[in-house]
Amino acid sequence: MKQKRKKLSVFTIVNSSFLILSALLCVIPLIHILAVSFSSSAAAAAGKVVFWPVEFTLNSYNYVAKRAAFWNSMFVSVERIALGGFVNLVLTILCAYPLSKEKSEFKFRSFYAWAFFITMLFSGGLIPWYIVIKEAGLLDSIWALVLPGAVPVFNVILLLNFFREIPKELSEAAFIDGAGHWTTLWKVYVPVSTPSLATITLFSLVGHWNSWFDGLVLMNNADNYPLQSYIQTIVVQRSYSMLSRQEISELATISDKTLRSAQIFLGSLPIILVYPFLQKYFVKGIVLGGVKG
């Protein structure tokens, strides 16, 4: 027993150390970016900033606060995750419910399941994807960012496996009481699926918030860029075509490094604030939805 406890203790220490190290590797870059964003231009340019602001200043944040384009792109991203998250959640539920049934209950279940699964392995390609969206008249609209990814197949698989774990006695009792499939789905399955629903909602929100490529490709007008696309043009491409002369002159007094750090941190802040509220459901939703016993 003592040897077993000793082995378990060593495993716990090693495992905990590994997890702490992994967490630090994720958090340290964010702390560095935050420190740079609050530091002076000279200190950032000289490379003096590590994990604590040097010559604390809010100049970069004051500049960002005056940028109408930044807040406009923030609004586009908020609109995108509101619409996209809702559409993803509803369509995921509607797809997962019939696919969670046995073949005797839904004759074409295997056909539709494979039809969805194949889309995870193969895509039509970038050009056909763009042409379809263009011919549908979605370019330069918020729906171009929402509808092409309306049915996230990974989330469907996660949720259908969770639905399969729900005891059949619940649905049978609902049918005996006269409920149909629609009532059973929304009044029996959905209320008991909170962990899995929270997990797929988190995936959808993070996916929509972090997406930047589709905004660059599908939006001809820079005013319609979501936040990550806007940040990509400023931080990565360093394109200042969207800035006025006054803003460019103000930018000359601010370090490009501190400005980019401020915008990156503000861009990640909403997800950082939302994540803790869904964390308690996250692990449970992954375990129950990802494994079918």
Could you give a short description of this structure?
The protein has 293 residues and is mainly α. Helices cover 73% and strands 0% of the residues. The protein has two domains: 2-45; 64-290, MetI-like fold (Orthogonal Bundle), CATH 1.10.3720.
How far is the first residue's CA from the last residue's CA? 31 Å
- Overall mean pLDDT: 81
Which CATH C-level class of the largest domain is it?
A: Mainly Alpha
Number of strands: 0
Structural class: mainly alpha
Total of domains? 2
Backbone shape: globular
State the order of secondary-structure elements, H for helix, E for strand.
HHHHHHHHHHHHHHH
The CATH architecture assignment of the largest domain turns out to be Orthogonal Bundle
Uncertain runs are: 289-293
Write the topology of this structure.
Layout: H1 2-37, H2 41-45, H3 59-66, H4 68-99, H5 109-121, H6 126-135, H7 143-146, H8 153-165, H9 168-176, H10 181-189, H11 194-210, H12 213-218, H13 227-236, H14 245-251, H15 256-290
Helix pairs in contact: 1-15, 3-15, 4-8, 4-11, 4-13, 8-11, 8-15, 9-10, 11-15, 13-15
Please provide a written account of the structure:
The structure is a single chain. This protein has 293 residues and is mainly α. It folds into two domains: 2-45; 64-290, Orthogonal Bundle (MetI-like fold). Helices cover 73% and strands 0% of the residues. The protein is built from 15 helices and no strands. The longest helix has 36 residues, at 2-37. The protein is globular. The two termini are 31 Å apart. The model is unreliable at 289-293 (pLDDT under 50).
